[in-house]
Amino acid sequence: QYANSNFCVAIGDNATRERVFEEYKSKLLTAKFPSLIHTSSIVGTDTLVDEGTVVMPLSNIGPNSHVGRCCIVNTCASIDHDSKIHDFASIAPGVISGGTITIGKRSAVSIGTVIRHNLSIGEDVVIGANSYVNTNIENSVVAYGSPCKKVRIRKKCDPYLD
Fold it and tell me: Counting Cβ atoms within 10 Å, is residue 70 exposed (0-12), middle (13-18) or buried (19+)?
């Protein structure tokens, strides 16, 4: 009965959100997963926000950027120009990035983090709160601090708030 409905997968954990999104998408072939962008947010020219992504109030996504499927860009986050946020990533409130950054699939950037321009954060990464990222971060790690440093290895489906 919901085959032609619109859906928003409102789950904070990135791996769980991916699993639920993929399950619904495969079972409800004609369902829609629109991007939801708050009217107070700014999305730059030539920027693509893919299906199922939520952009919360007062956020900014700079020009020539791409935000993947089912991402979260939370309140007052600022992603600068020419950036790429891969599917199922989450950007917490107050995150600020320079331009030309890449954030990998299912990665979580925690509240108040600052990311220097021209950097990559790998897949399945968790960046801790109030970190300053000034170097590339490899896949599957937990990293935090100022400057941000790898603290431990992380498995793909580990809860990101542990």
Answer: buried
